[in-house]
Design a protein that fits this description.
The structure is a single chain. The chain has one domain. The chain contains three helices and two strands, in the order αββαα. Helix 2 runs antiparallel to helix 3. A hairpin with a 2-residue loop joins strand 1 and strand 2. With about 100 residues, the chain is mainly α.
Length: about 100
């Protein structure tokens, strides 16, 4: 999901030099840097952890408060991971449109 195989095979740079200095997200929408790839992998792990915690909350039948807390934590992790991914994509599109790419 985050491009781990791409990182191993292609070895993208961590940051690239742009026209006005160093920038972390540069190139086209299909290109990615190593830091972007690691961030996407981290956000994907957050989403899967959220699903796992939400699933585990359904198995707690003796303590409804703990189950509710775990469910809220799981949903929060899912939303954090998904919104982080959308934010990263929107940020990349803004930067790419600023440089006319």
């Amino acid at each position: 999901m985050g491009g781990g195989i791409y990182d191993l095979l292609d070895g993208p740079p961590t940051i690239l030099r742009g026209p006005q200095g160093y920038i972390a997200v540069r190139g086209s929408v299909q290109d990615q840097t190593l830091m972007e790839s690691v961030l996407v992998m981290f956000l994907t792990v957050l989403v899967f952890a959220g699903f796992f915690v939400s699933y585990r909350s359904t198995q707690i039948i003796y303590d409804s408060r703990r189950a509710t807390t775990m469910l809220i934590l799981g949903i929060s992790l899912i939303l954090l991971g998904l919104s982080g991914g959308y934010y990263l994509l929107a940020l990349k599109r803004i930067i790419l449109s600023r440089y006319g790419i």
